[in-house]
Amino acid sequence: MNLPQALYAAIHWADGDLARAIGRLSLRDLFIGVEEHDDLSRTFDALEFFRVYLYLRLTDEAETDVAKNLDDPEFRDRLNVTETVSQPTLNRLGDRLTERQMRYFDRVVAQVLAAIEDSRYADQFDELPSPDTEERKPPYIKKLSRELRAEVFRHLSFDRDDSIKFKRDFLLRIFVSAAIHDIHMNQACENMELKSWIGEGNSVDPSNIRHQLLKFDPATVTRMFRRANGALFDIAFEHEYFDDTNEVAIDSTDWGWYGQGDASRDIQKTKPQRNFYYSWQFTTLALVGTNTPMTMRAVPTRADTDKGTLVRRLLRYAAQVTSFNRAYLDSGFYTTDAVRALESTGTEFIIQAPDRGQKIEGLQRLAVAKESEVEAVPHGLGGIDDEKHWLFAVKSQKRSRLRQGEPDDPTDDWIIFYTNIPLDDDDIDSLELATDFRNRWGVETSYRKLKQDFLAQSGSPRLATRMFYFKFAILMYNMWTVANVLGAEEQDYDLSSENFVKANRFTRAFEDDEVTLDLTDPPETLDSCWFPQGTSH
């Protein structure tokens, strides 16, 4: 007897009492390998975890009601579990299963519900499955992904002709599949053909997708993703994601290129410590100081890009999305042009300065000699009045942790910042400013995650194609962010400890969804709401 058969028999034995039926099942015999899953929960052992999960999948009770039931010792005795858990914990049980386990329990639940459809117990269980899988009630994360796809993917237009028989939603989910598995588009097409709901003989031709990308120029890519992200910002705004005053970060991130450096004028030399000589460079604008960060803009840049013009463009864009009073910038923006652009907007700023220059090296030596926690001196970059701006040195805990033993040069442990915040003000604490900079949600870590979980592989030397892939990765990252915001709000979940849904679980809901959406085109006036029309990239 398999698990669905045993559970169906137990429901009859328990006269429709689902908790008692699940509690009496010998899961150790019916579910092979259950002992291998003791790490699924800190509250339940593996057997209890699967009992509670089965109950959640089959009952028509909401998670809040199940959590209340678990507070009752008599209910726990019937279900054969020992501990009670909160509703947010119940919401996340499914996130801890592998895709293979999820598919297994999908089949178990479908078979059990189908078996009891004509029995006297049918009205005690959740919505019974239809033979048409599109009418089945989807898991919460899959439902959330559909809602976001409907709002966001419609802004990404493909000029499809008769040679392409798949809908836009499906084509875009191939990009998601490529990102999940860190593969190229042709491999992702082959993977998607294996989905059971594709249908026999329906091949996905990667050349069609590559042809679509060849139709895009940089300006078109920029406009599409500006609109798509704008739709996400609208949703985030409606759910009070933005504070009255926010902080932003401007950073440079690279995407490695393993071909020849002369393949495109947009391919740049990269930092010597990387495992690649060349890369595509993007300057990003992100909202900081929140448990769920969003990247608002990504601009491809070259070594000769004017930093002042770039900073003005990004801050002007940020002002269209939300109000902000401070900007954090990496050392690539320690230039006179960038600083003058920041000054022109009246924005407070903190820039990490490079470890070079006579005054910077002198400040580092002074800090070492005095063994102080922080040292600051007035300094105006490139002829700017010294009385307005400051350099300050703080000992870097990160550099100390990463190194074994003492440094060759004691100044190596000191990091330098440049700011227009008046450090001679008694209310200003330089150490707090350094902490604020370090705590700007870990920009480097977030972009590593973006490239690891959301960015597909590409060998294209075309700027527009590279922009599409990189901006699509940012869009997916932002969709994941908004999914966390919506899920936390709807399920009363605290995001300060961890995300509501893991990135891999969220993207899997895209790839494995048997439902392909009919995406409606957005109204022509969308740009006028948040973002002006433009062709710059």
Automatic annotation (TrEMBL):
GO terms for biological process: DNA transposition. Residues 247-455 form the Transposase IS4-like domain. It comes from the Archaea. GO terms for molecular function: DNA binding; transposase activity. Pfam families: DDE_Tnp_1. This is Transposase DDE domain-containing protein. It comes from Halobacterium salinarum (strain ATCC 33171 / DSM 3754 / JCM 8978 / NBRC 102687 / NCIMB 764 / 91-R6). The lineage of its organism: Archaea, Methanobacteriati, Methanobacteriota, Stenosarchaea group, Halobacteria.
